[in-house]
């Protein structure tokens, strides 16, 4: 799922968090302050890199490591930290909503919106504009609540169907497993609306019968062997952030379903500084990977919005895309080597050449296979030295058309910053509503002045203007130069620079929106986002048509309130762009809101396809979008994929039934 | 979902918009504040912006390059030529001229018509629709008078003024051409043929108007003014251009508004009949217009403008097409639409014309014309028809029309005689009898030759035919079924259905049938005949009821002239030795043959003399592949087909 943002500050203040989050002032303001502080900072960074190298490998969960994995002591485990994701996810995460248990939006006694916890920049803050925005956008009302079931009722969970023979042999391997109801429920879903909605109502469908936690590649090999031997259905589970129904257990599956949770395979096995690669276990989640690499002075630069929780293996299995792909590339550009365990054995390449002409790239059978062929266990990824300098920015355009034209020009000149995103007017307003309470009168005065300048002096219509958020990265001089180039282009399209703050808040919106959905669901508002990729010449049309289709379908389906139907362009490519749609509505008065939601999303997807958009840019197909696969890749294409599946996994051990 | 009948409530309110006009000053009206709510997404675009957008479009660049390559001339030259075409074509809508137009039109209309009735509900729906998506106004075209009527009404009710597709001859009228241009008309050449550049400029121009939604677009889907006052099978060129922006996703939706304009009396009625008989129509010219000003002295009764329910193209096309076929070619490049899309366009166009038909109002005069034409011609021209019998039968027919869900324009008092008085140029009512008025001086020194006599009568009859045609759409489906019953003498439903389909197919150029709806048409015919008590229906059988003979005989006689005309032409083609014939030979030869047969008393209809009928037969035969077009105006008959299946199934009565 593409929400969020590098967030969590664990006990040590990791560099990425100080850069992007929590402490407010970005590096830009630090470094532009004075040269001496800049030097100081670089020195500190070096120190931390060295410290990282000097640290002895610490086994975070040593107690549960299987003997054999521990024996791999000769491998350098450069990690030093406790990992974010424990085996028992319920210790820190919500069972029926997004993210950490301690972080959520709520309306306090005064009726003001507030974000709880301490993890995020927004944590502990009051958001004065949110209530009014929710009331005016959705017609929501604080009096009309739809609270979620407070606790998971284990008795509602079907007893597990266990394959005794498999279980017996599994026990003998010493690999940890569980058939506890909570553990199973946690692995039975992703974050599609219908999945979360059902959980909130305490409805639980088919869930995995068993959860196993392999600790290393060899554990996985054993599990897969046993699964084949005993005809058990395996479903790999990484970060659980899927939004394609990929983790839903097929109801028609009669075998015992075993969820293979990779979260404990989370070490960086080595870092190769000569070739700038890192060999990493596939269960590591994004924030840990980045944090650990940062300690050594490196990064992958792969930052999907879900990176707090999504895993490397999941990225590979769904063809993930990161916010900063303009510099670092998408997952397919970052991966050098993949190891995957399949029912036919282990697949991997024999060398790590940067490019090969050896027939179709077998990595591309793996990337996007969505857990239907095997389990990705280890990945060698490109790494980069951490950027010296980072700077946010934003540009206001008089309307969305101008904004898209500007992005197109930026792409044409191939000078896209690390990230460039264009929000439409509704999202701009949404972002505005999420402004935390300002402490000083001066700031609010300044805000007022800016608003006046843009709407009155420059004549921008507040109901049409839209904003692009920017993130530049690299060495300081180049960033400043780059920044100028982009702002110059923007000016040609009527764009006005609107400051770093707006930019930063724009990126914040990405991560909070997932938490916000839970707040909405407390008050009769349901919604979700979905994405596509589309050639440049159709970007405007697809945005307009899909948004209009959503509005019309809601009306036709009897939705009583006008929906929120908004979009943004989140990635630029040479030949097109990635577009994200957000859709939410107040469902008061509807008997089956989820069904209505699904019908509208279905119609929206039809509209996307009819307008030349793709089935998915990076969320994947899962089971949610399977029905369109044949028309997307042709019957021959389907045949190709099927024949691979038939060879690799003839007994459908990896039986999540995604994709095909 | 799209059924036109659904939109036509029986008790729809019509308002006379002239009434208010007569109470206020013309100048005050013309200078009223005009503040329409435009299509919401539309950025302001001036005429010159529009032209620039067209000229600089990728599409036109591409075509220009292609043409330059084909013809060996330079791209710049081709583009120059395109610029010229665009100048000739382009509208130049200006509010000042709209006011002038409104002023003039108002004056003229007040003179010509007693009332102009408009359904306000339709106007309200239109006003709403215009704010939501680009709107295409699609009136039927029965008279020159209706060219500006829609603009006039929209101006009166503060709705954005449309740009209107017009034939190029209008543009060449001095002063008037320019006024029309500035009132929103844009001009299209006739017979564009294979002029690739012209097509390109025109289609890009039309598409740009639709895409930007800068103004509603008005065009006649029938292509031209119907000389016969009967709906014309729609032309698809403009329809294609108009719908393409939706197919390509450039707009979310397009709204089509069928508009039915009905006249009590058509201003150019006598010209039409002469034109159909081969007397060329006067060239559009400004002096001609002034000469025609004597028409201003006449009374033309009322005019009804019925704005139909706005139709969403998106809804119409749902499930019929797959728009993703446009995904793989850059949208700015020309792409031949798939047959699926073409069929859909054709279907939509037919649907619109059908909806226009259903929305039009039938006058008492049309019903009288139906009845008058069923009387022997000699009765009409000589002793005359009994007035009493005629009025009684007209009332009977009124009831039948209501049974058939037709919409009547039936004023309350003194309907019959005022109707006949209004149409004094066609019939006169004297001493309890009604006779056909025949043009020319009966006491002329030179007695007419028999042939000339036939033509003279034909001119009068064809005028009557035109007014009959205004009511025809109500009767066509049950009429074809009645004909099928009459000819096959069968009661078997499936047998009748198959003959019904055959006739429907043969007459598809004559009447409007929505493609692919044969069985619905048949069901409709059955249920209407049942409703009026003419037949009894069971699962497999259709039995004629004693009480229904009058209805069936009326219906069958109503269509008889068409059967006779088609038959005659088929016979001519079969018996004529040459396989290859030109249109130029064909038309007079058929006319000669028909005249002979009329004189000898073997043919009882004058309608075959109409060039419209002759052309329709030719088109039908081409569609049925009995005749092939070799090149413009030259045809070859496929004897085995013509001598085979069609005439043998086609009854010789």
Automatic annotation (TrEMBL), chain A:
Its EC number is 2.5.1.26. FAD binds at residues 236-242, 318-321, 370-376. Keywords: Acetylation, FAD, Flavoprotein, Lipid biosynthesis, Lipid metabolism, Membrane, Peroxisome, Phosphoprotein, Transferase, Transit peptide. One of its GO terms (cellular component) is peroxisomal membrane. The active site is at residue 580. The record marks 421 as: Important for enzyme activity. It catalyses: a long chain fatty alcohol + a 1-acylglycerone 3-phosphate = a 1-O-alkylglycerone 3-phosphate + a long-chain fatty acid + H(+); 1-hexadecanoylglycerone 3-phosphate + a long-chain fatty acid = a 1-acylglycerone 3-phosphate + hexadecanoate; hexadecan-1-ol + 1-hexadecanoylglycerone 3-phosphate = 1-O-hexadecylglycerone 3-phosphate + hexadecanoate + H(+). The keyword Phosphoprotein applies. Substrate binds at residue 517. One of its GO terms (molecular function) is FAD binding. Pathway: Glycerolipid metabolism; ether lipid biosynthesis; Lipid metabolism. The keyword Transferase applies. It is found in: Peroxisome membrane. Its cofactor is FAD. One of its GO terms (biological process) is ether lipid biosynthetic process. Residues 204-386 form the FAD-binding PCMH-type domain. Homodimer. Catalyzes the exchange of an acyl for a long-chain alkyl group and the formation of the ether bond in the biosynthesis of ether phospholipids. Belongs to the FAD-binding oxidoreductase/transferase type 4 family. This is Alkylglycerone-phosphate synthase. It comes from Haplochromis burtoni.
From TrEMBL, chain B:
It comes from the Eukaryota. Signal peptide: none annotated. One of its GO terms (cellular component) is peroxisomal membrane. Keywords: Acyltransferase, Membrane, Transferase. GO terms for biological process: ether lipid biosynthetic process; fatty acid metabolic process; phospholipid biosynthetic process; triglyceride biosynthetic process. SUPFAM superfamilies: Glycerol-3-phosphate (1)-acyltransferase (SSF69593). The keyword Transferase applies. GO terms for molecular function: glycerol-3-phosphate O-acyltransferase activity; glycerone-phosphate O-acyltransferase activity. This is Dihydroxyacetone phosphate acyltransferase-like. Its main location: membrane. Belongs to the GPAT/DAPAT family. Transmembrane segments: none annotated. PANTHER family: DIHYDROXYACETONE PHOSPHATE ACYLTRANSFERASE ISOFORM X1, GLYCEROL-3-PHOSPHATE ACYLTRANSFERASE. The keyword Transferase applies. It comes from Haplochromis burtoni. Coiled coil: none annotated. CDD domains: LPLAT_DHAPAT-like. It is found in: Membrane.
